[in-house]
Amino acid sequence: MKRVGWSIAYMCVGMVLSWQSALWISRLSQRLSWPLFMTRWRGCWDIEHCDVSAFRYAFIAAFIFAPTIIWAMAGFRTANSTAPRIGTALLLALGTVSFYMIFYAAIWR
User: Fold this and answer.
1) CA–CA dist 54, 9 (Å, integer)
2) Which residues are listed as membrane-spanning (predicted)?
3) pLDDT of 29-57, one tens digit each?
4) What are the phi and psi torsion angles at 107 (to 5°)?
5) Structural contact between residues 7 and 77, judged by C-beta atoms closer than 8 angstroms
6) CA distance readout (Å), 1 to 6, 40, 53, 79
């Protein structure tokens, strides 16, 4: 039961941090000249107005859910650990913010 509790707690923190990271970096992208480097991932990502391939749908789903799932798995693994949880949480927070920053730097227009 302890593992489930920590997993849910980490998952909630992961959801909030993912949402806020995407929101803050989206606002930042409106002020900067993005993309910062050229990639082949250009094109239309708007699901309503463009023909989006299955690969792009999978990428969009991963963009939304992957950080939260990783947070939940980390909470499950650290539930019975004696290691400090704050270090794990800080590392995950840095990874989540970096994930969204790299996405916007590489793809967003």
Assistant:
1) 32
2) 7-26, 55-74, 86-107
3) 777 665 555 555 555 656 777 777 788 78
4) -115, -40
5) no
6) 9, 46, 41, 10
Give the DSSP per-residue string, 46-74: -TTTS---HHHHHHHHHHHHHHHHHHHHH
- Cβ proximity of 103 and 32 under 8 Å: no
The model carries a pTM of 0.72
pLDDT beneath 70, residues of the chain: 32-46, 82, 84, 107-109
Cα(101)–Cα(35) distance, rounded to whole angstroms? 11
Percent composition of the chain: helix, strand, coil (DSSP 3-state, to 5): 70, 0, 30
